[in-house]
Design goal:
190 residues; mainly alpha; Four Helix Bundle (Hemerythrin (Met), subunit A); 0% strand
């Protein structure tokens, strides 16, 4: 239970409240945007969380220590991290206007696909992750990281605009992969 991969996954879940604290506007002077230092710390933590996401699976496979707990917790840790970051970036208005739609698409797809996976698991049907879904995940992780970093570097407007464009790319990939998963799932719903 306390294997290195599981500890890495749990650390990602436990890091979410710290990330929330760093980016929560009302905890900062004036109750507005977090300070530049808080964005830097949040960016560093977010990157560390991303590394643990990569290494927990890598170490588990390399050591042959893939556990039922890890298989259960890893996707939950991913969803918690993504949902928290989306909500925080909308709350801090780092994602605002029409860009909230892209964030919502990503959040809703995470919920729908999680429910679909749970339903199919009850039928003992596996739904492997597609290559495009991996690209979607990479695009959204880089977009969210870029948006957090843009808070640390507000004078770099191009960084924020690039991250927002990548957010839309992730949202489009999210729709495509979500539709693919839904088509597979519907075949098993009689």
């Amino acid at each position: 239970m306390l294997s290195l991969p599981n500890i890495l996954t749990l650390s990602r879940i436990l890091a979410v409240p710290i990330l929330v604290f760093l980016l929560w506007p009302s905890l900062h002077p004036g109750g507005h945007q977090p300070a530049v230092l808080d964005y830097w710390l949040a960016f560093a933590l977010y990157c560390l969380m991303g590394l643990t996401d990569y290494f927990d699976g890598y170490v588990a496979r390399a050591q042959g220590t893939v556990s039922k707990l890890g298989v259960f917790l890893d996707p939950i840790a991913d969803k918690i991290m993504i949902a928290a970051v989306i909500l925080l970036l909308v709350f801090t208005r780092d994602v605002d206007g029409w860009h909230v739609i892209a964030a919502l698409i990503i959040l809703l797809r995470e919920i729908i696909v999680s429910g679909l996976r749970e339903f199919l698991a009850g039928l003992q049907v596996s739904m492997p992750v597609s290559q495009m879904a991996k690209w979607k995940t990479a695009a959204q992780l880089v977009a969210f990281g870029g948006l957090i970093l843009a808070g640390a570097l507000p004078e770099w407007e191009l960084l924020k605009q690039t991250a927002l464009a990548l957010l839309w790319i992730a949202a489009i990939l999210t729709l495509i992969t979500g539709w693919d998963y839904l088509r597979v799932g519907v075949k098993h719903m009689d």
